[in-house]
Amino acid sequence: MTNILLTLGVLLVFTALLFSLYKMQTKHIKFSKRVFIALGIGILFGIILQFVFGNDHVVTKQVVEWTSIVGDGYVAFLQMLVMPLIFISIVGAFTKLDTSKNLGKISFHVLTVLIGTTALAALIGIVTVFIFNLDGATFTQGAQETARIAELAQRQEMVQDLTIPQQIVSFIPKNIFADLAGTRSTSTIAVVIFSTFVGLAYLGIKQKKETDAQFFLKIIQALDAITMRIVTLVLRLTPYGILALILKVTATSDLNSIVNLGKFVLASYVALITMFIIHLILLILHQVNPKTYLQKAFPVLSFAFTSRSSAGALPLNIETQRKTLGVDDAIANFSASFGLSIGQNGCAGIYPAMLAAIVAPTVGVDVHSISYILMIVAVVSISSFGVAGVGGGATFASLIVLGSLNLPVEIVGLVISVEPLIDMGRTALNVSDSMLAGVITSRKMKNLDDSILKNPEAVVESN
Question: Which key words tag this protein in UniProt (predicted)?
Answer without folding.
Answer: Amino-acid transport, Membrane, Transmembrane, Transmembrane helix, Transport
